[in-house]
Amino acid sequence: MSTTQEKTKYTNDELLIELGKLRPEFLTPGFWNTLDTNSSQWAADISVGFFWAEAKKRLPYWRAEYRALTSADLLAVLDLPNFVSKPSESIINKLLRHHKKESLPSVIPTQGPPVPMIGDIIRIRIKCQYIDGVEFLANKLQSLGDELKVEPERERQGKIEGYFAQHINIQHEVNYREAGHGNLITISCEIQIASSMASQMWQTSHPLYESVRSDISSSPDNWQWKPDDPRFISNQLGHMLHLADGLLVQLRDLKNLKKE
To answer: In what order do the strands lie in the sheet with 84-85?
Structure first.
């Protein structure tokens, strides 16, 4: 077995040990399947819940307002998408990254159902036609979240890996079901908003990003001066597309000015 494989195996074994110390339920046979079943149901419930139903109701008005301002469509599709759940395998990988950063206890609840307190167990990605639509829609959803008291937390992300998006996390009550019993808990749901180009770029390069992000020794030095490294292409392209998004808005607005 190679050194890298030995390190990966060791850290995963180490993670299981630490999870068991914090909450023995994580080691119970069938636990992760139960979490998958619950999170899939949560995604379906939240997609028709009070917050997202109201967002879909207001979307036509938001689109009309944005069109009046820019003479452009707000979204790349006709409606807001539905929420999806994060697979347990991805949850475990995220917990592994927390363990490497020595922050694992902060995301494991000490009481109630053992559902990891990470922000994207339930998430959604919205594609906007233009980059200024990202800011516009994020403002609307944040205001709606304040109005409906779902405690929205917003973050404008611009990573060195070329990831550009805005995230809004909201709090939603769900029912954790196990062995015929249910417990109401509150989870954080992540709304990701990005331009169409940025979304396509991230969707294409995300498997590559996932393959290296769990490596604690990985750093920009490993790819920034290696043009034959796939990360050099994908990460730099992310920055180029962000610039292109900005240029498209300028060209669109210039065209609108000439019409006037």
So the answer is: 84-85, 122-128, 181-195, 164-178, 153-158
User: Domain spans of the chain?
Assistant: 3-193
Residue found by looking up tokens 């307002």 in the block = 65
At 181, the pLDDT band (50, 70, 90 cuts) reads confident
Q: What would the pLDDT profile of 6-38 be if each residue is shown by its tens digit?
A: 444 446 677 778 888 999 998 889 999 999 999
Backbone angles phi, psi at 21, to 5 degrees: -70, -40
**127 φ, ψ (degrees, to nearest 5):** -105, 120
Cβ–Cβ < 8 Å for 145, 51 = yes
21: its two tokens: 């110390």
Q: What is the 3-state secondary structure (H, E, C) of the chain?
A: CCHHHHHHHHHHHHHHHHHHHHCHHHHCCCHHHHHHHHHHHHHHHHHCCHHHHHHHHHHHHHHHHHHHHHCCCCECCCCCCCCEECCHHHHHHHHHHHHHCCCHHHHCCCCCCCCCCCCCCEEEEEEECCHHHHHHHHHHHHHHHHHCCCCCEEEEEECCCCCEEEEEEEEEEEEEEECCEEEEEEEEEEEEEEEHHHHHHHHHHHHHHHHHHCCCCCCHHHCCCCCCCHHHHHHHHHHHHHHHHHHHHHHHHHHHHHHC
* Residue 52 near residue 46 (C-beta atoms within 8 A): yes
